[in-house]
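The methods section describes the discrete structure representation at length, but only in general terms. The central task, working out the structure tokens from the amino acid sequence alone, is never made concrete. Nothing conveys this as quickly as seeing an actual entry. For illustration, here is how one protein appears when written out as sequence plus structure tokens:
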Amino acid sequence: MATFSRLIRAIVFDFDGLILDTEEPIYRSWLEVYQAYGEDLPFERWVQTVGSTNAGFHPQHHLEERLGQSLPKEVLDRRIGRRTEMILAQEVLPGVTRHLEEAKAMGLKLGVASSSTNEWVRGHLARLGILERFDCMRCRDDVANAKPEPDLYIAVLDCLGVPASEAFAIEDSPNGVLAAKRAGLRSVAIPNSITARLDLGQADVLLGSLADVTLAELLRKVSAAWPDD
């Protein structure tokens, strides 16, 4: 079997919930709105939206249907303010920065594939001081279809000039894992507080945190999970 340095030339990261925990603040900000109106936010429907823009559930529309009225602009503005406040209090998730540094030291290419917008992802990566660590980024405004379709991963691989057989994805949601697998990549799943209750069994490797392993250890796990033909 070839060494992992020949097998893997690139790593593609998801963003929301994987690099930065935006998932919990977004959920909590909507939960506060629902609670203020005495309504329940159905978690089983909410989690279908994680990692995708095509889940068919929109919390604002759902709540407005339950209430029979539109939500006031000040309520929506306050919700966005709370979301922003909670996200800005977050730091890069454990192990991410170390893995980026180790990947660069090994000469691996780095990409981001996100179902969020370019403005959202680029802005947060710049604020966190890690935007320049990535060689390529593709977001939902760059492709026809977001996750779980493979478009984002195909676009990133094309940008990096690396075939799917020589890369792997790191994801936090079933939608993301499915997108990566459909694009032909190996996948590592790291659930967050929102996705921990979901089935991530399609991933090739499942971890509790990137801080649990060195990059060399992770590369060995990924290579072992998908050996050479």
About this structure: The chain has two domains: 4-22+93-225, 23-88. Residues 1-6 have pLDDT under 50 and may be disordered. The longest helix spans residues 73-88. The chain is about 45% helix and 10% strand.
